[in-house]
Design goal:
395 residues; mainly alpha; 18 helices; 2 strands
C-alpha cells in the first residue's frame, strides 16, 4: 500500500472511467423509454431485448460508479482537515441536489404525472402541486431528487465512513488495510469482495420495506459494499496489479455468471428465499463484481494518459449527470410520439440530448461562476490583467 501516492498522484484511469460510466448512464436512461418496466415517460412499443440490455447495464453500472467514488475518497483523504472535506462534499453533492430538487426535477415529475394520467394541464399549472410536500408524505416532490439520489447517497456514505477511512489510511488501521489488501491480492481472491454483496441480496426480500429502498437496480445498502471495495482496492498497489493482470479472467467470469443467471431466471421472478432466487442473486452478485473488476483492470492497463479531452470532460461530468435525465425526458416525451422506427427514436433521443446537455454546459454553466457553484463545480478564478510594467517586462 502506498498512502503517499494517494495525496500526490492523480489517477487518470479513474477520471476516464468516471466519464465513461456517466456516458453509460445516458445510454441506460435513453433505453428506458423502450424496456418492459414502468418509467416516467414510455414509448408505445417496448421490447424484451431492451429489458435484457437494461439488466446487463444495471448489473455493473452503478456498482462501478460507487467503486470509483470509494477509490476517489481514498485519494482525497489527507489533503486537508475534516471541515474542509465536509465543505467540499456539501458543495459538490448537496448543493446540486437541492438546486435540482427545487428547479428542473419538477419537470421530470410533471412529465411523469402527465404521461401516467395523474395530471392534466400545463407545467405551470402543475408547479404549485409539486411544492405541496415530499413524496414520502403524499406530496409530489421526490426526496431523492429522482436520478440525483446518487448524490444524496454518496454524501451520506462519504460522511458516515469518513472516520473508518481515516483510521484505515491515516491511523492505526493501516496494518489491517495492508493485510486485507495483501490477502485479496492472491490469485482469484479479489472475487471475495462479492461475498457481502451477495449476502445482502439473499437476505433482503425485494417486496419488503427495506427492499423498496433501491435505485439503479440495487438496494441502497448494497452500494456500501462497492463503495468500501473501491476504497480497499485503490489502497493497495499489489491488489491493483493482480486485478489488472487477471482482467480477462474477470471478464470471462462475469460473462459466465451473467449467462447462467439469465438461464435460471428465464424471465420469471422466483419467490424470495427459494432455491432459484438464491441461485440467481448469487450469480448476479458475483457477476457484478466480476464486471467491476474487469473494467477497473482494463482501466488500469489502458486508461493512464491525461489529455485535454479528459480534463474538459472530467470537469463537465457532474453537471452533465445533474442535467441529463431532465433533458432526456423532455426530448423523449416528444420523440417517442413520432411515427418513425423505434431504433431511430433511441438514436435521436440519445444524440440530441447529449448535444443539448453539452451546449448548456459549454455556453452557460461553465462560463458563469454562480451556475458553476450551483452545479457542483469549483468557482473559476478570473485571471487578472497584467500591469503595464509587467507587460513591458514580458516583451
Amino acid at each position: 500500500m502506498n498512502t503517499k501516492l494517494g495525496t500526490t498522484t492523480r489517477r487518470h484511469d479513474l477520471d476516464w472511467l468516471r466519464v465513461l460510466a456517466i456516458l453509460t448512464v445516458l445510454v441506460f436512461h435513453s433505453s428506458r423509454f423502450f424496456d418492459l418496466e414502468d418509467w416516467h415517460v414510455k414509448n408505445a412499443a417496448q421490447y424484451l431485448g431492451v429489458q435484457v440490455w437494461i439488466i446487463i447495464l444495471a448489473s455493473w453500472m452503478m456498482p462501478l460508479i460507487f467503486a470509483i467514488s470509494g477509490a476517489s475518497l481514498f485519494y482525497a483523504l489527507g489533503k486537508g482537515k475534516t471541515g474542509k472535506f465536509i465543505q467540499d462534499k456539501v458543495l459538490r453533492l448537496l448543493v446540486p441536489w437541492v438546486v435540482g430538487l427545487f428547479t428542473h426535477i419538477s419537470i421530470q415529475v410533471y412529465l411523469d404525472r402527465l404521461t401516467h394520467g395523474q395530471f392534466h394541464g400545463s407545467y405551470f399549472e402543475f408547479l404549485p402541486h409539486y411544492f405541496n410536500g415530499l413524496d414520502l408524505f403524499g406530496g409530489n416532490m421526490p426526496w431523492t431528487g429522482m436520478h440525483l439520489w446518487y448524490l444524496v447517497v454518496l454524501f451520506v456514505f462519504s460522511l458516515a465512513f469518513l472516520p473508518l477511512f481515516r483510521w484505515l489510511k491515516l491511523g492505526s488501521g493501516r496494518e489491517l488495510l495492508e493485510r486485507t489488501g495483501s490477502f485479496l491480492a492472491r490469485p482469484g481472491a479479489a472475487i471475495l469482495l462479492a461475498l457481502p454483496t451477495v449476502a445482502i441480496l439473499l437476505l433482503i426480500d425485494p417486496d419488503s420495506t427495506l427492499g423498496n429502498w433501491e435505485n439503479g437496480g440495487w438496494y441502497y445498502i448494497n452500494y456500501i459494499t462497492f463503495f468500501l471495495g473501491g476504497f480497499l482496492i485503490f489502497a493497495h498497489e499489489g491488489l491493483q496489479r493482480r486485478i489488472q493482470g487477471q482482467r480477462r479472467l474477470w471478464l470471462a467470469s462475469g460473462l459466465v455468471m451473467l449467462v447462467a443467471a439469465f438461464a435460471v431466471w428465464r424471465g420469471n421472478d422466483p419467490a424470495f428465499g427459494s432455491l432459484r432466487f438464491n441461485v440467481i442473486y448469487t450469480l448476479f452478485g458475483f457477476g457484478a463484481w466480476s464486471f467491476v473488476l474487469t473494467i477497473l483492470g482494463f482501466g488500469m492497463k489502458h486508461l493512464t494518459a491525461s489529455t485535454p479531452l479528459l480534463k474538459y470532460a472530467n470537469q463537465a461530468v457532474l453537471p452533465f449527470y445533474v442535467m441529463h435525465q431532465t433533458v432526456l425526458l423532455v426530448v423523449g416525451f416528444f420523440v417517442a410520439r413520432w411515427n418513425i422506427p423505434d431504433l431511430v427514436k433511441f438514436l435521436i433521443i440519445a444524440a440530441s440530448s447529449f448535444g443539448i446537455i453539452m451546449s448548456l454546459y459549454e455556453y452557460l454553466i461553465r462560463r458563469v461562476n454562480v451556475l458553476r457553484i450551483l452545479f457542483g463545480m469549483k468557482k473559476e478564478a478570473r485571471i487578472q490583467p497584467a500591469s503595464a510594467r509587467e507587460q513591458v517586462l514580458a516583451r
